[in-house]
Amino acid sequence: RAKAEGRGTVCTFSRDMDAQARDRQALEADLRAAMSANEIYLVYQPILAAENGQITSVEALARWAHPTRGQIGPDVFIPLAEECGFITQLGEQLLHRACTDALGWPSHIRVAVNLSPLQIQAGRLSATIREVLDQTGLPADRLQLEVTEGLVIRDVERTFIELERLRALGIQILMDDFGVGYSSLSYFERFRFDKVKIDKSFVSNLSPSQSSKAIIKAVIGLGRDLGMGIVAEGVETREQMEELVRLGCTHFQGFLFSEPLGASMIAGFSQTFPKAVGRSNAARRVRQ
Ligand code: C2E
Ligand code: MG
Ligand code: MG
Ligand code: MG
């Protein structure tokens, strides 16, 4: 009986796998279509300076409005695009869009674009980015690129050479999701990132966990000594923000301040925000 059950389980399992594979294939085909139909678009989440609550930059986050399945998150379709070889093309489209949108905002607001490891591996990233900057007219110093540790580990030397080229153009390079991957402190020896983003998992564990606090403290110390700004992502509560200010984070991003917004809302946000929420006591303390 156990055997029969076991076999039944395997059978169901493989039927499920079949269904899953078919579903994935369908989604893959949809993704190809979505790219040309402009179903994939960007929203922008404000990032604020701890010292005065002013917006300094926004992070471009990709969204997919699927005609029948509804919204599909980037955690699903970015890996899919990577696996089926679309990511270079999609990444370039999104970069172009982000640079174009940024031209509609006050010029002190930078735009941060996430890079997939595969975009760098494709080899002509710095050339592509230069082309996009030329075509759109966005000054290079208004562009930031967010790279993850995964990007760095695959081919360390080539990656850092490419990142140096980009930085030579005036683009800022940020280390994203720091602490969740295979962080190696030696990367900081090899390359000076302009900013480090502390992963939101550390921020959300902040109050219950002493170890998260210790890790954040260590990253901030490292950042300070190496001249890197420290962005805390996923800040959801005022308590978290105040603790992060005490610890010395230089920038904040999270639902406490704003969810990702449409491009047309950024200019308005930059005018109203510091009056409404910024300049907390904690933020003032940092400035002294
Ligand atoms: P990420 O680069 O670490 O982006 C931050 C994620 O945290 C975003 O999720 C954002 O919506 C979310 N977030 C921001 N504030 C809060 C908060 O207070 N609480 C919580 N719980 N979450 C918050 P999203 O937009 O779902 O993006 C997920 C990931 O997908 C990104 O993580 C990034 O790795 C990737 N991604 C998004 N857009 C792109 C893109 O255009 N290109 C590439 N290559 N990857 C992208
Ligand atoms: Mg990011
Ligand atoms: Mg991140
Ligand atoms: Mg993340």
Report on this structure.
This protein has 13 helices and 9 strands. By secondary structure, it is of the alpha/beta class. The longest helix is centred in the N-terminal third of the chain and has 36 residues. The termini are far apart. The relative contact order is 0.13. The N terminus and C terminus are likely disordered. The site of one magnesium ion has 4 residues, from loops. This is EAL domain-containing protein. It comes from Sphingomonas abietis.
Please give a handful of descriptors for the protein shown.
single chain, 288 residues, alpha/beta, eight-stranded mixed beta barrel, 13 helices, disordered N terminus, binds ligand C2E, binds magnesium ion, EAL domain-containing protein
The fraction of residues assigned to DSSP E strands is: 15-25%
Q: How many β-strand stretches?
A: 9
Largest sheet: 8 strands, mixed, barrel
User: What ligand molecules are bound, each kind once?
Assistant: ligand C2E, magnesium ion
Percent helix? 40-55%
What structural class do you assign from the helix and strand content?
alpha/beta
The overall average pLDDT, rounded, is 87
The whole-angstrom Rg is 21 Å
Distance between the termini: 74 Å
Overall spatial form: globular
| DSSP summary: helix tally | 13
Strand order of the largest sheet: 1-2-4-5-6-7-8-9
- Secondary-structure element pattern, one letter each: HEEEHHEHHEHHEHEHHEHEHH
Which stretches are low in confidence, meaning pLDDT under 50 for 5 or more residues running?
A: 1-11, 275-288
